[in-house]
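Standup notes
- HV: blocked on the assembly model, inputs below
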Amino acid sequence: MKGMIGIVVIVFSLVVLGCGSAGAQEAIKIGIIEPLTGPAAYDGQSVVEGARLAEEEINARGGVLGKQIRLVVEDGKADPAESVNAAEKLLVRDQVPVIMGAWASSATLAVMPVMKKNATPLLVETATSLKVTDPPSEWVYRICSNSAIDGQLMEKYLVPTLGFKKAAFMAANNDFGRAVVTFWSEAVKKKGGTVVLTEYHAPGEINFAPSLTKISTSGADSIIITSDIQTASNIIKQTYEMGLTKIKRLVTNGIPSEAIVKLAGVEASEGVLVHNYWVPFAPPKGQEAKNKQFMDKYTAKYPNKPVDKYAAFGYDGIRVIAQAIVTARAADPVKIKEALKKTKVDGLTGNIQFDDKNQARPYSSVSRIEKGKPKLVVRLN
Amino acid sequence: MILQMIINGLLVGGLYASIGVSFSLVYGIMGIINLAQGTQIILGAYLTCAMVQFFHIDPFLTLPVSGFVLFCWGYAIQRCIINMVGKGGVVLTSLLTFGLNLVLINIILLIWNADFRGVNPAYAGKNFELFGATIPYVRLAVFFVAVVATVSLHWFLGHTQTGNAIHASAQNKRAAQIVGINIRHSYALTFAISSGLAGAMGTLYVILKPVSPFSGADLLMILFLVAVLGGLGNIPGALLGGVVMGLTDSFSVLCLGMQYQKIVLFLGFILVLIFLPRGFFGRRFYG
């Protein structure tokens, strides 16, 4: 009797599974690897939510190649091992022809060889490590920026416009922080400025008073801060406690001004310069209407969440992929890879087209926090 | 600059010390390594954030409340859960507190989500000069409150009947029971005091620095270092350990740079373990 039940269950599940995959074949699948749990979950969710908006929009217009698109989302936890598992699952089980991910640089770098082995393209939406596109891999395309590009763009403004003549760095002691220090230092030095001090900290570090004391006696006229939201805000807060507000402070890499104001306080963040990628208040020129539309839709769908750059990159990422599938005229990994090369999308995050290293140059800007509100200072491109 | 560095070290050392004491107390009395202690501090921090947000009061005023809530939580947890495996040895209790830590993190996540929280009193930027060194009022207040809490805890354990009962249960369980001490109660009380202190320190911690539900991990490292430096279970030792750690923080940055801070700290830690394996004060609390 028990055996019978077992057989029935197996047969039944085979039928159900079979139906499942047969039904799914009608839609074109796009794999997504994002941190949905763990410390980076909030940002990872934003990417997915932005991507879902793009999915809805595209499907409402009739999809691509006459088929609907369907996002298959896997949790990579911003962890290299978990992200590799997620990639294997998407490639083997779901047989997706293209993947967007994997949020963190370390996770993305771990996933890249898997993509190469399976000959499937990866669109990188938020990871900024230079190594993702240098040396370039034919299977990896990136729509977000990297530190080399940022340094290049800042060169024109950092010393001449913003007056960072004697800069001090406070950077996270990881690949990301060190890359920013390397390329932004060049930007300072090329225009006749000097870097007087560089202090690396462990992310999550509590006490910056010693470092700030050193900076205040080093004669620095500016501090460039590169870290995660929490640590950067903590540094801002402590500069204020120590009375160092006369020194110019700049936070790099798109940390939202709202978060800094919330965590460090309105008084402490007065005058802080912020280096932005996509921001709600200053879209690239010509994108104002689309930007508003995107933000309205997002707020309607996720009422309790402020729109952030992660959502914008998620949204643009799926649009780029959809465009590439249209150009490729097939949901085939190799054809999509070739098509991505020629894809151009006027996105919210800038004019997306890939150079010979498969790297796009997203729009960026610098703003200043005044009375708790960010004000645009300069558009970098 | 050297004076500034010493002051920096002392001010943050006070908080480190208090955090260390809360951890070392439970180990000294009951032999339990409470891996949830870091997150208990974070829970206190979140309570402070919530109270400041709803009632718009000064964060320092929320300290008794977060302390009391965590005190009750600690009492209940020890009485209902940890006591059950109290005899199971250090591995079992560590596993249990490890699990509790995960539960706590996820409770915080459920209520407040993964967002960072912080509080910023209006006077955060006020400071005064002393012989050319800048002293922020906020840090001074945090230092002061932390030291007062630690010292009064020390006094309480040494000079009150309840304190003596706690001592007694640590020194000789049997004898304590014979003279009519309710061991379960005094264990639960110890745990509650430790959690309560953690909650109060959470208030101070979040005044200094924004927190996320996962920030407990950063704290756990400090807890261990301070407690072991001072000798596990030794309150004056932990006080000294905290200050030494604060000063090491400062001077490693001054002499080498911030990226070497952890190296110096842990090298020092290894040396202490080799040459003073029982911490600065050379003896374990009890037993």
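- HV (later): unblocked. The two ends of chain B are 44 Å apart (CA to CA). The domain at 2-275 of chain B is CATH 1.10.3470 (ABC transporter involved in vitamin B12 uptake, BtuC).
- Next: hand off to the docking folks.
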